[in-house]
């Protein structure tokens, strides 16, 4: 059953806020985007915008959740070409520097267990490791990865590489994040049995 009335309108407005925030932050950068600017972009006051979120931190956390949702819809980890899909997401990140800044800032702050986005990032890392680990297991079962590799560690290393490369790229935009991830994949996959 579809949501009705003001509840459905509230969900639609929240989605509009998140979609608009993705574009504004990607364009202007995290530090140069204010809650007032986001509110203006969707025709609300700051208080009106924060009515849809419990705090500014939750708003930005939900922007990142929306980014993940949009990226999965656009790039996914396709069964036929999972590593290529992952690399496409990394490549796309270089086109949205403001969202990369938001992710880096919020993930660092969320390391504090009392931060409102702490649970989001813990869940996100668990989900990513599970998804990427499943892709690695499929590759290993197909004989494209060494059977002795510890796939949980490999999944962690890819996540660490992607996050670390984003930080390096923000400091030096000449770094090609996607090329580095492709190279890491070549190193991991070159000793496959067969």
From TrEMBL:
Species lineage: Bacteria, Bacillati, Actinomycetota, Actinomycetes, Micrococcales
Name assigned to this protein: TetR/AcrR family transcriptional regulator
Domain HTH tetR-type span(s) in chain numbering: 11-71
One Pfam family named in its UniProt record: TetR_N
Transcription listed as a keyword: yes
Family matches, as SUPFAM superfamilies: Homeodomain-like, Tetracyclin repressor-like, C-terminal domain
Organism domain of life: Bacteria
PROSITE patterns on file: HTH_TETR_2
Keywords, alphabetical: DNA-binding, Transcription, Transcription regulation
DNA-binding region: 34-53
InterPro entries cross-referenced by the UniProt entry: Homeodomain-like_sf, HTH_TetR, Tet_transcr_reg_TetR-rel_C_sf
PANTHER family from the UniProt entry: HTH-TYPE TRANSCRIPTIONAL REPRESSOR NEMR, TRANSCRIPTIONAL REGULATORY PROTEIN
Organism, scientific name: Agromyces salentinus
Bilayer-crossing regions: none
């Amino acid at each position: 059953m579809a949501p009705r009335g003001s509840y459905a309108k509230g969900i639609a407005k929240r989605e509009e806020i998140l979609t608009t925030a993705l574009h504004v932050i990607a364009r202007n950068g995290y530090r140069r985007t204010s809650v007032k600017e986001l509110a203006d972009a969707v025709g609300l006051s700051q208080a009106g915008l924060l009515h849809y979120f419990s705090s500014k931190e939750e708003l930005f956390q939900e922007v990142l959740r929306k980014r993940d949702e949009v990226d999965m819809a656009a790039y996914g980890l396709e069964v036929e070409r999972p590593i290529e899909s992952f690399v496409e997401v990394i490549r796309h990140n270089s086109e949205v520097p403001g969202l990369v800044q938001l992710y880096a800032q919020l993930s660092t702050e969320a390391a504090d267990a009392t931060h409102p986005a702490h649970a989001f990032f813990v869940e996100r890392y668990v989900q990513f490791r599970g998804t990427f680990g499943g892709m690695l297991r499929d590759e290993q079962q197909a004989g494209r990865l060494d059977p002795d590799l510890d796939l949980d560690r490999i999944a962690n290393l890819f996540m660490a590489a992607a996050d670390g490369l984003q930080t390096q790229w923000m400091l030096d935009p000449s770094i090609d994040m996607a090329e580095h991830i492709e190279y890491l994949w070549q190193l991991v996959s070159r000793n496959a049995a067969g």
